[in-house]
Amino acid sequence: xxxxxxxxxxxxxxxxxxxxxxxxxxxxxxxxxxxxxxxxxxxxxxxxxxxxxxxxxxxxxxxxxxxxxxxxxxxxxxxxxxxxxxxxxxxxxxxxxxxxxxxxxxxxxxxxxxxxxxxxxxxxxxxxxxxxxxxxxxxxxxxxxxxxxxxxxxxxxxxxxxxxxxxxxxxxxxxxxxxxxxxxxxxxxxxxxxxxxxxxxxxxxxxxxxxxxxxxxxxxxxxxxxxxxxxxxxxxxxxxxxxxxxxxxxxxxxxxxxxxxxxxxxxxxxxxxxxxxxxxxxxxxxxxxxxxxxxxxxxxxxx
Length: 303
Prior knowledge:
GO terms for molecular function: DNA binding; DNA-binding transcription factor activity. By secondary structure, this protein is α/β, with parallel strands linked by helices. It has 10 helices and 12 strands.
C-alpha cells in the first residue's frame, strides 16, 4: 500500500476542522479537489474516513483510529525533510502544481515524472487551472499543469497532452449506437459542461464554440460542492449529455463506463481536442532557463 503524504495532510486538516470548506480554506485550495483527494485516500486505505451529511462531517471509527498516526507520520516527514535540508544544504525546491481537473491517470503520470527529477521538488494540486495560473503569476509556484487557453500574457506554456472531446451518455441513449459522433449530433440535446466551470476562460470558450455549432441547450447540474458522481447521477436520471474529455482510464472515464453509461469520442474535425500544458511565468522566476530545462525533462517523461 502506497500512501500519498499530501492526502494525509488533507485528511488531518478535515479531521481537525470537521468541515470541508474550512479545511480547504486552511489548505488554500477549493473544496472539490479536497473532497476528491480524500476519496482517493479512502480508496487507498480501504475504508471511509468521514461520515458526511448535509449538516456535518464526523470521523468514522477508522478515521478516529488513524488520526493520531497520520499526525505522527506528517511530523516525522517534516523532521526528515528538515534534517535532509540541513545535511545537504539543498537549494530551494522547484514548486510544481497541477490542476485537479486534468484526467486523473495523467495526474498520476505527472506526479511520477516529478518524483523522478533529480532536483528537490514540491508537488501540489491546488485546484483549477485558473488557480494554478494565479499561483504562477504571484510567484507561489514555479511550474504548473493547466488547461489551455490561458489568457494571462505573462504565462508561457508547452503542450504535453491532448484529449479528444467525448459525450458521456446513459446506456440506452440513442447516441450509443455510434462509436464516433460529430459535435453537431448534440443539437437539440441538453448538454452539460460543468467540469469546465472552475476555469472561466475555458468555460466561456466551450459555451461559445457550442453555440456557434447550434448547440444552445447548455444546462448546469453540479452545485458548488458537487462532483463527478452528482454529474453522473443527473446524466443517468435526466438523459443529459455530459461533454467531457475522452480519457477512459481516468476516474471520470471509469464512472462513465458500461454498463450504466457509454463514453463516445467526438470527431476531432468537428470539435478541437482539449490541450493540457506545462506553464510558467518567466518574469516571476529567478532562473527561467532552469525551469525550462525541467519542462523539457517532464515533457520527455510524459511523451
